[in-house]
Amino acid sequence: MSDELDLPPDELRALYRRLQPPPLADDLAAADLETARVVRWMQGAWSGLAPRTPVPSGLTRPRGSVPHVPRARIAAAAAAVLLLAGAVLWRLSSTTDQGSAPARVAQATAGEPERSIEVIDVRPDQIELRSGPVRLLLLDPPSAFSDEPPRG
Predict the structure, then answer these.
(1) In this structure, are residues 129 and 136 in contact, taking their beta carbons and an 8 Å threshold?
(2) How far apart are alpha carbons 72 and 80 in whole angstroms?
(3) What is the pLDDT of residue 45?
(4) Quick check: is 109 in a domain?
(5) What distance in Å separates the CA atoms of residue 90 and residue 1, rounded to the nearest whole number?
(6) Domain boundaries, position 109
(7) Distance between CA 43 and CA 51 in Å, rounded?
(8) Is beta strand 134-139 parallel, antiparallel or unpaired with respect to 126-131?
(9) Most CB atoms within 10 A, among 13, 112, 138, 151?
(10) Would residue 144 count as lying in a domain?
(11) How high is the pLDDT of residue 83?
(12) Gyration radius (Cα) of the chain, Å
């Protein structure tokens, strides 16, 4: 048996093609049409089988083994993930939501509702507050490098 394993692949293929399927236990002529059809199909499938091509042992890996990944690739992937996560966190922490201002910044005690301070409008360059009948508009001075004319 060990002599057959040392044969070149072409000789193994020739030996395999010379194999004959085992004879039927029953006579095919006495079988019904469906059984005869299935037996002929199986015989054709058997004769059409091609042997597997041999693979050199150095190209295969045992089942269940983990492929070796260089530490440099693992470190680069970890650095990329950390860098991306840091950029996302920085972006989230640096964005300010200008559209959602609190309804009230400060409020007097419950006995004095007319002295409460309400936020009317909040923009990047101004804040408008109201306390009773008085409205207060706080303006930021325009930037020295800004091309926009001051609003007002």
Answers:
(1) yes
(2) 12
(3) 85
(4) yes
(5) 69
(6) 104-139
(7) 16
(8) antiparallel
(9) 13
(10) no
(11) 94
(12) 43
pLDDT higher than threshold 70 for residue 85: yes
User: What gap in Å lies between CA 5 and CA 1, rounded to an integer?
Assistant: 7
Whether the pTM exceeds 0.85: the reply is: no
Task: Flag whether 108 is in a domain.
Answer: yes
pLDDT tens-digit readout, 23-78: 666 677 777 888 888 888 888 888 887 777 777 766 666 676 677 778 899 999 99
Report how far residue 43's alpha carbon sits from residue 19's, in angstroms, rounded to the nearest whole number.
12
Q: β-strand 134-139 against 104-106: which pairing, if any? A: unpaired
Provide the token pair at 52: 């597997």
What would the pLDDT profile of 110-152 be if each residue is shown by its tens digit? 555 555 788 888 887 888 888 878 888 888 776 666 666 656 5
Distance CA 89, CA 80 (A): 14
Query: What's the structural domain count of the chain?
Result: 2
Name beta bridge partners: 121: 128
Structure-token pair, residue 79: 């650095």
Residue with tokens 């089988």: 49
